[in-house]
Amino acid sequence: MPIGEDRWHIYGGHRLWHSPEINPRTYAPDNSPVQAEMKADTLHLTQDTEAMTGIQKELEITLSDRENRVQVLHRMTNRGVWTINLSAWGLTVMNTEGLAIIPQPQGDREALLPNWGMTLWPYTDMTDPRVRWGRKFITLQQDPGISPRFKIGLRASSGWVGYLRKNQLFVKQFIHQPEADYPDWGCSLEVFTNEAILEIESLSPLTTLEPGQELEHVEQWYLFDGVPSVADDDASVEQNIWPLVNPLLSRG
């Protein structure tokens, strides 16, 4: 790995970025060693302050001793001398050939006013064969044979996204604040894919940080085994995925 180089590299796994996505700020290199400290069931990782941005990033990763759950706390601290406005952005890089499951916000079918919006990027093709636009769920297939980039974002009021691969379901849960201002035209959830990866990404509200102030954003991760595959319709998602996700949401 090119540790110590002065440009950004994607290594896979999970990373903490700052949104909106701006080059070079977002792409500040994270190739240096981090401080690691283990306290009970929590791993605390601290990065040196980014010379380019004045932002210090931290992750606190806690493994539950009662269930198949991992809590990931993202923290950003403004160590600079200027006020900054940003969102904490948690990006999880998933392996190939899986299916992202994105719930659509629901509402009164007889309502006259819109209740949610979706954000598209300049390279997003709505006719892309990897995506299925359902009535309750959007699914996005990672396909190593299709190289064009694809990305969507939305105000994810339900606060979750899933990734199903080889009968294992990964669920990322996060808090969506309905009245908050989010980046990218209001996105608290974004999903990206190309031929190599698929990323599921949650975002915190945009926050103004004075020097010395910090921002925290929390994700809960769950993993389920033995999950049946999903057909190309909402009904199979409701049958195979929803019974696993619904109890998580009812916890509040």
Question: Could you characterize the architecture of this molecule?
Answer:
The chain starts with 13 loop residues before the first strand and ends with a helix. It has a ten-stranded antiparallel β-sheet, covered by helices on one side. Strands 1, 6, 8, 11, 14, 15 and 16 form a seven-stranded antiparallel β-sheet that branches. It has a single domain (14-249), classed as Beta-galactosidase, Chain A, domain 5. It is mostly beta strands. The model has no long low-confidence stretch (mean pLDDT 94). It has helices at 183-186, 234-240, 242-249, and strands spanning 14-19, 35-39, 42-46, 55-63, 69-78, 84-94, 99-103, 118-120, 131-133, 137-141, 150-154, 160-165, 168-174, 189-193, 198-203, 207-209, 214-225. β2 (35-39) and β3 form a beta hairpin. It is built from three helices and 17 strands.
Shape: globular
CATH topology: Beta-galactosidase, Chain A, domain 5
Number of domains: 1
Strand portion:
35-45%
Helix/strand order: EEEEEEEEEEEEEHEEEEHH
Distinctive features:
252 residues, mainly beta, Beta-galactosidase, Chain A, domain 5, seven-stranded antiparallel beta sheet, 8% helix, globular
A few lines on this structure:
The chain is mainly beta. Helices cover 8% and strands 42% of the residues.
SSE layout and pairings?
Blueprint: E1 14-19, E2 35-39, E3 42-46, E4 55-63, E5 69-78, E6 84-94, E7 99-103, E8 118-120, E9 131-133, E10 137-141, E11 150-154, E12 160-165, E13 168-174, H1 183-186, E14 189-193, E15 198-203, E16 207-209, E17 214-225, H2 234-240, H3 242-249
Antiparallel strand pairs: 1-6, 2-3, 3-4, 4-5, 5-17, 6-15, 6-16, 7-10, 7-12, 8-11, 9-10, 11-14, 12-13, 13-17, 14-15
